[in-house]
Design a protein that fits this description.
The protein is an alpha/beta fold. The chain has one domain (5-238): Rossmann fold. The chain has nine helices and seven strands; from the N terminus they run βαβαβαβαβααβαααβ. Bound molecules: acetoacetyl-coenzyme A and NADP nicotinamide-adenine-dinucleotide phosphate. NADP nicotinamide-adenine-dinucleotide phosphate binds at residues 9-10, 12-16, 34-35, 38, 61-63, 88-91, 111, 138, 140, 183, 185-186, 188-191.
Length: 246
C-alpha cells in the first residue's frame, strides 16, 4: 500500500479522532488538525501516543481562510503535500427557526460550509497538478433530508453536497476524487449534547435502534481514500442505520 499524507480537520472530535486512527492504521501519515489553542490538545496527543498513534498536529480555524492557508503551507514544508483531505470539522447551533439568531446561522455556515472553500482551495489545485488526490467531505443525513431545529446545519450540510459534486466534476480528469459521507446519528459529544428525551426518540426512530460508531465512519473514509475507490466521485455515501428506508 502506498503511504500518503492525510489531513483531517476537526481531528480532536469524536469522528475526527477515529478517522485519524483508521487512516494511520491503513499506513498513512496523518495530520490531525483542529482549532488553535485547544486546552485538551496536549492530553489528546498523549492519549493518542499511548495508543500507538504518532500524529503530526496542525492548527487552523476552518472558518478563516488565512488560518487554513498558513496551516497547509506549514504542513507542506514540514511533511509534504497533502494527498488525502478529510473535511470533518463541524458544529451545531440548534434552535427552531423563529428563535435562531443570525450569529447561530453565521457560525454554522462558516464552520460547516465556508470551511470547505477555506481548507480545500489551497490543497486541491496541487492534487490536480500531481495527478492524484482524495477529498472526503463529512456531510450529514440532516443535510440530505433536512431536520427541524437545524435550518443552519441542514443548509450547510446540503451545501456540502453541492460543493462535492461540482468540485468532483472540475477534477474528474485529474485523478482527484471528491466524495461526501453523510452519517446519520453517531455516538459523539455532538449527539450526546441533544436533550436526553429528544435523543432517545431519535434513537428509537433509527431502524437499527442504535447510534452509529465513529469507527464505522473511519472505515468508510479509509476505503474512499484508497486507490481501489478511484471510480467513485461526486457521490454521497449514506451511513445511517437504515434511516433512508423510513
Ligand atoms: N418548528 C418551529 N417551532 C417549533 C417547532 C417546530 N417544529 N416545535 C416546537 N416549536 C416551538 C415551541 O412551540 C416553542 O415555542 P414557545 O417558546 O413560543 O412556546 C419553541 O419552539 C421552543 O420549543 P422547545 O422548548 O421544545 O425548544 P428547545 O429550544 O428546547 O429545543 C431544539 C429546540 C434544540 C431544536 C430541540 O428540539 C432539539 O434538540 N431537536 C433535535 C434537533 C436535532 O436532531 N439535532 C441533531 C444534532 S446532532 C447532529 O446534527 C449530527 C448529525 O448530523 C446527525
Ligand atoms: P465533535 O466531536 O464535536 O468534533 C468536531 C470537531 O471539530 C471538534 O474537535 C471541534 O473542536 C472541531 N471544530 C469546531 N469548530 C472548528 C473550527 N472552526 N475549526 C477547526 N475545528 C473546529 O463532532 P463529531 O460528531 O465528531 O462531528 C464531526 C463531523 O461529523 C462534523 O462535521 C459533524 O457535523 C459531522 N456529523 C456528525 C454526526 C454525528 O452524529 N456525530 C452525524 C453526521 C455528521 P471543539 O470541540 O473545540 O469545538
Amino acid at each position: 500500500m502506498t503511504t500518503r499524507v492525510a489531513l483531517v480537520t476537526g481531528a480532536l472530535g469524536g469522528i475526527g479522532t477515529t478517522i485519524c486512527q483508521e487512516l494511520a492504521k491503513a499506513g498513512h501519515k496523518v495530520v490531525a488538525a483542529d482549532l488553535p489553542g485547544l486546552q485538551h490538545k496536549d492530553a489528546w496527543v498523549a492519549e493518542q501516543k499511548a495508543a500507538g498513534f504518532d500524529f503530526y498536529v496542525a492548527e487552523a480555524n476552518v472558518a478563516e481562510y488565512d488560518s487554513c492557508k498558513a496551516m497547509v503551507e506549514k504542513v507542506e514544508k514540514d511533511i509534504g503535500p497533502v494527498d488525502i483531505l478529510v473535511n470533518n470539522a463541524g458544529i451545531t447551533r440548534d434552535k427552531f427557526f423563529p428563535k435562531m439568531d443570525r450569529a447561530m446561522w453565521d457560525a454554522v455556515i462558516s464552520t460547516n460550509l465556508t470551511s470547505l472553500f477555506n481548507v480545500t482551495h489551497t490543497i486541491s489545485p496541487k492534487m490536480a497538478e500531481r495527478g492524484w488526490g482524495r477529498i472526503i467531505n463529512i456531510s450529514s443525513l440532516n443535510g440530505v433530508r433536512g431536520q427541524a431545529g437545524q435550518i443552519n446545519y441542514s443548509a450547510a450540510k446540503a451545501g456540502c453536497l453541492g460543493f462535492t459534486k461540482a468540485l468532483a466534476l472540475e477534477l474528474v480528469e485529474k485523478g482527484v476524487t471528491v466524495n461526501a459521507v453523510a452519517p446519520g446519528y453517531i455516538a459523539t459529544k455532538m449527539v450526546m449534547a441533544i436533550r436526553d428525551d429528544i435523543r432517545e426518540n431519535i434513537r428509537n426512530s433509527i431502524p437499527m435502534k442504535r447510534f452509529g460508531k465513529p469507527e464505522e465512519i473511519g472505515a468508510l473514509c479509509v476505503y474512499l481514500a484508497s486507490d481501489l475507490a478511484g471510480f467513485i466521485t461526486g457521490a454521497t455515501i449514506n451511513i445511517n442505520g437504515g434511516m433512508h428506508m423510513c
